[in-house]
Fold this protein.
Amino acid sequence: MSVAVETLFTSALGLQAPWMVSRVELDTTKRRIDFEVSCDAKKLPCPACGVNGQGIHDRVRRDWRHLDFFQFEAWLHADVPRVDCSACGKTTAVEVPWARPGSGFTLLFEALGLSLCQSLPVAQAASLLRVNARRLWRRIEHYVGTARARQTMDGVKVIGIDETSIRRGHDYVTVVHDLEAKRLLFMTEGSDHKSVTEFKADLVAHGGNPDEIRHACMDMGAAYIKGVTEALPQAQISFDRFHVIALANEAMDEVRREEMREQPEVVRAALGTQRKTIQGLMWGMRGNPADWNRDQINTMHRLQRSNLKSARAWRLKEGLRTVYSVAVQSNCAQTAEEMLKGWISWAKRCRLEPFRRLATTLKERLPGVVRGMLDGRSNAYVEAMNGMLQQTKRAARGFRTVKNFVAIAYLRMSRLKHLPQNPLRPAASRDQGIKRYRAGRQVPLKTA
């Protein structure tokens, strides 16, 4: 039994009375298919006040880009009724069921665009969809904003705070993650103590309770310490292993560079004159001994037998790693504190200024460092997410504004539950996503 083309596409587009496809035009030259959608109702509910049986004042021509039909660009066209309400006195256009108000794209087209932008640079997604990238950015900002407004932060207890850059060397943003739920909670421009206050306000606005936050993991920057102390005084601060060892690596690199600059002949005499050996020294000193290759093993054995400052710096760094390993195994605060104090004493007497500065820093932050050793919490997840953000930035060749950077971060890392679903997924999942987005909007249009 044959079915009329208009009836077929009415069903395919999911339209219900009084909406229907009244005409289909295919232009193979322009590689385009156009669907004319009609509304045959004579009276409609008022979109403003909901009173039924109101007359139609006029109709306004509108067009929407839809998902491609095979290789053809698809467009929907409709004369959208405007209802003249005798009850409220307003003349209001009805909301079509396939698009949100004011958009030139259908809901399914926007959903596909969002799905592509979760894994592709926005410019590349826009090119695939054959739309202007700025139009796609506006959709990202809209959907991310509405989804975040409905996102709850209730039950957040452990947070990780860090900073990342939108451009090399400047324009830093603060990121706050829920370390238990593994999601991005908050992101704002700047990296001072006020950023934590802004997070607290955003947490409250999303149903969270600042008093429930018991733990904040971060680096040793004074700004975030001050921010947490003032805005979240009940939260215990810990400094995770990643940042502490990173500081030790920085101190070690400073010693190595200074020695190479001031005494290159001494270094070459101790390690060998081969360029490959000198270049491999940095990676050997930074790396885990278990991961050394044969060349690095030979280089590091020469280093350990030498009297170079770099050798002492490497021993100090490895000594700090050993302190962490023993502290974790003992799971004893007293043992961890005693071992760390011993390392601090060693570093202060080592006559290497970078490590003396590090020892002073660790002594000032001793409780937080010990706490970070024992509780097992780490900002490794935050650092991994920051790495993904930087990879996203490189793939996109940068972002024009901080606003765009923040929007794409929320889209990809916040686990937003109220985004429209990918239209290429199974129908049940897709329809559920569209229903979540439409929640709170007017009821489906019915004839009076």
Residues 241-374 form one domain. Confidence is low (pLDDT under 50) at residues 440-448. The radius of gyration is 30 Å. Residues 241-262 form the longest helix (22 residues).
